[in-house]
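I have a small job for you when you get a moment. Would you make up a two-line entry for one protein for me to read? No commentary is needed, just the two lines. Write everything out right here, beneath this request.
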Amino acid sequence: MISIVYGPKGSGKTKALLDKAVNAINSAKGTLIYITNSKDHIYQIPHQIRYIMADDYNITDLQSFIGFVKGIIANDHDIEYIFIDGAARISKINIDQMQPLFDVLNKYENINFILTISSDYDNLPQYIKNYVN
């Protein structure tokens, strides 16, 4: 399952994502992972959530980010949630180029993916709007 937290820059997407991650601790039976490329909120991530700093892994484009996510999933078969703060920013692409990422994430039906997207609703590509709750 894929869910989107969207809004313009500075609208509180990261805070909303952090809140969702912390709330998931109480009900999750599997592993929780938080991927970002910002150290701004590192101390707000509880120890029950595996924090991954994407910039430490030389992600240069969308394909390397997709491979990175697949590697994380291959390493742990108990993943229940993956929170991704700024997938387009980490991948160094525009949101209208993210379709291949969504195609891959859709294949993992047993993992809940929650992503932040910097955009207002009207500017979201239709394939992303399909995941907005």
